[in-house]
Hints:
Blueprint: H1 37-45, E1 50-51, H2 54-59, E2 73-76, H3 80-93, E3 97-100, E4 115-118, E5 126-129, E6 134-137, H4 143-151, E7 155-156, H5 169-175, H6 188-191, E8 192-198, E9 204-206, H7 212-219, H8 221-235, H9 238-247, H10 260-263, H11 267-275, E10 284-291, E11 293-294, E12 298-306, H12 309-321, E13 326-330, H13 332-337, E14 356-364, H14 367-382, E15 397-398, H15 401-412, H16 414-420, E16 427-434, H17 440-453, E17 459-463, E18 468-475, H18 480-500, H19 512-515, H20 519-538, H21 593-605, H22 611-626, H23 633-637, H24 644-655, H25 658-669, H26 671-686, H27 690-703, E19 734-737, H28 740-744, H29 753-763, E20 768-769, H30 781-786, H31 789-806, E21 814-816, H32 819-828, H33 835-842, E22 846-848, H34 849-857, E23 867-872, H35 876-881, H36 884-894, E24 895-899, H37 913-916, H38 918-924, H39 926-933, E25 939-942, H40 945-955, E26 959-961, H41 962-970
Parallel strand pairs: 2-4, 3-4, 19-20, 19-21, 21-22, 23-24, 23-25, 25-26
Antiparallel strand pairs: 1-2, 5-6, 6-10, 7-11, 8-9, 8-10, 12-14, 12-15, 13-14, 13-17, 16-18, 17-18
Helix pairs in contact: 7-8, 8-20, 12-17, 17-18, 21-22, 25-26, 25-31, 29-41, 31-33, 34-36, 36-41
Amino acid sequence: MPLLEPRDDTLRPVARPETPAPDRVPEDRAGGTPEPLRGELTALLGAGKVLTGISDLVRYASDASPYRFVPRVVVIAEDIDDVSAVLSYAHGKHREVVFRAAGTSLNGQAQGEDILVDVRRHWTGVEVLDGGARARIAPGTTVARANAALARHGRVLGPDPASAIACTVGGVVANNASGMTAGTTRNAYRTLASLTFVLPGGTIVDTADPQADDLLAHAEPALCAGLLELREEIASDPALVARIRAKYTIKNTNGYRLDAFLDGETPVEILRGLMVGSEGTLGFISETVFDTLPLDRRVTAGLFFFPSLPEAAAAVPLFTRAGASAVELMDGNTLRASVSVAGVPADWAELPGPTTALLVEFRSPDESRQEACEEAARAVLEGLSLVSPVASATNVLTRDPAAIAGHWKARKAFVTAVGGARPSGSTLITEDFAVPPERLAEACEALLELQTRHGFDAAVAGHAAHGNLHFLLAFDASHPADVRRYEAFMDDFCRLTVERFDGSLKAEHATGRNIAPFLELEWGPRATELMWRIKRVVDPDGVLAPRIMLDRDPRAHLRGLKTIPRVEPVADPCIECGFCEPTCPSQDLTTTPRQRIVLRREMMRQPEGSPVENGLLEAYGHDAVDTCAGDSTCRLACPVGIDTGAMMRDFRHARHSPREERAAALAARHFRSVEAAARLAVSAADRIDDKWVIGATRAARRAVRPDLVPEWLPGMPGAAPADLPPTARVGAAAVYYPACVNRIFAGPGDLSLAEAVVAVSARAGKPVWIPDDVVGTCCATIWHSKGYDSGNRVMANRIVEAAWGWTAGGALPLVVDASSCTLGITHEVVPYLTPENRALHAELTVVDSLVWAARDLLPHLTVRRTVGSAVLHPTCSMRHLGDEEQLRAVAEACADEVVVPADAGCCAFAGDRGMLHKELTEAATRKEAEFVRSRPFDAHLSANRMCEVGMDHATGRGYYSVLLELERATRPAADGI
């Protein structure tokens, strides 16, 4: 047993509700997956593909919807063989299967009560075809990732959901999600060239295969006959045909695509249409091929403010006729809630209640078309009565990319921003409907009246150009009276939409659990019964996704509503949308930020000391706390800035014993000795065979604690020179602070990073000075990342006091040569400073060495030689600082070709986290490393030594600072090369 076991019991919630939540996981589920299900699936697929612990089941029980269903088991499918095996097993054992990708669906489509199959992790990839005209995309690929690959060819996918950074292409097809500009002509149904899918019986169909119909007829004759019978029946009923065509003149994702029987002639053609929007109830989509669309890069946009929602809605058709590619509506509640989003004007919080804005965008292929669009837009604006209730409401057209991006950031954050502003403890419902666009203003007035009548103050936004609105309601699912209020509202809302407007109850979010009971209200008995027959023809045993689209229970939308117990304040606003997950380094290893919060909420639902809570706590220390890289990129991805990494650091602090805290503070006070000892140890290790050092550190990890003692990795760098290069204070343009990691670990060549920075700065006429007493100081990130508050406080105050003295009270900039240290000194030390030192900190100008090089040095340097190609690894600290473009700028001065891998992300080395949990770095960098190894590069560049070490370990390539390359590129020939 290790000497210092982590105190996981300190993670047990202290403040919890007086009574356990009604939807808590029952005690009999504490053991996880029961037998024989556990053993049979493990034997069938292998233990690594079957998740059975209670922590695994609970973290997969929630998605972005207001529902929660705990699966019996979770399968991580790696390929079609795994999917077929699970389907075959389910048929034989009379079990049910639900497929889950990103879990961003808003109606519970990604939740199952039996076998849940994760089809995100191993199902990614984009193959650009025909110069970008088409793209073959794996279903677990995010829309943003697919569009990044297509953008290089001037192309883009038709569907453009607001959740593009997180939602997957497979989910977009399965729900026929569309977005801001797709409407009814650019959605998946219209732009999908072909797809490959697995039917419930295990048959694999590739709709692009010329022999597909023959193969299907041989494998599934009854299915083919049933589909053709349905087609003939529909075609022979002119009134039904007319009704089907009419229903799809506006956006509609409620129920199966009955027009598939009108647009397709053969069973495969019919199935190709039916699979779009089928929500996983008819098969698993294993591959898609899209016809792409031109990416018009010339953009003009404006955010225009109106005194009321109906007045804004009335202006929508004017902009549409003027050629706008997108007209997005945001009501007053949405605008005010968006203030929580970084970059949104703070004065929006003061907007009058009924104020509504339209975000109007025009996209053009060339300058002449852009000017014509702008002229048309100005003509519309002249006839409108716009308002400017706050200073930022300027009502102007702009081409400025930053301003346009800011407008879209606010719009795309609708669900998360409004959800984050909801009352703590309340459940969020997202509704999505469409009416004929010409009746949008009337629908807005009716919706406002309905909300008032039921006591809701909902937020409204949507794709106004297409008559498609979204609104959010918050209520307490733990209070029966509040649930009844929601039930009454839904009954009236659905009847209003259908009976008054002949609208769609789901325009783009798909039927899901909350609209399934109202399917017949919209479609009528005849069409609804046809949908039930489709399900029986394709899935006669009812294996796939029962009750997600079709449910005869009139109160099915009230089953499984999840309570939202209060958790730590930093995480309490979370609506479990999943936007954070694609950026999380541990997403394919243990848990994601959303799952860390989901697990915490389940602990709060439980009575103290329950078997379920104990089981969750047993796993939480490793799966949530220890394997969090702490990089806080989740905060950047979250529209309301939830920093789950900060919560994990707080938990690390809570697990420390007083003795550990004292030891960490002692190390901070005597860091000069610690630094010298560390350099000596690295130097000694460099002279010993790696296998002996690795063995020694592994033994120490077993004896002390794996999360305290790093494991030495093969190929670790040697020790940095003991002495820093000589510099002069007189005439210095900046104070240069070599980070402690660069004072301990050497670079890859003969020239140290400090020597390179000094040389290249002097070469540019901007000499730097290294203070004599930098040794023994640190940016405090070592303590900050591990949650050692006392040590963090000691070093944070020391570095600020020292920097203030070095820079003559802020007269000179402080240049820092590691991006994580720049972030630490600039931002992370602040909460730990004394009031006096906060005042000193405010006078400092801290500059990352990348910014120093790109902004202050490059204009004064002569590049004398370049390498052919360079691949970059932007660090997560650069993302926080906004320095990624400076990395590229410096690299482009040094290399003829500069490449940033599309899958580049946090390497998760995080100081020494990658040595404490090397599997974390391996998982975090897997996709990026595959690309880096796929072709040769002349240089592998970054700007943080430990990230470079992590990438060395992940790729087998030698990464080094871009500043070393800049020094080499600009070195005079007389100095040698």
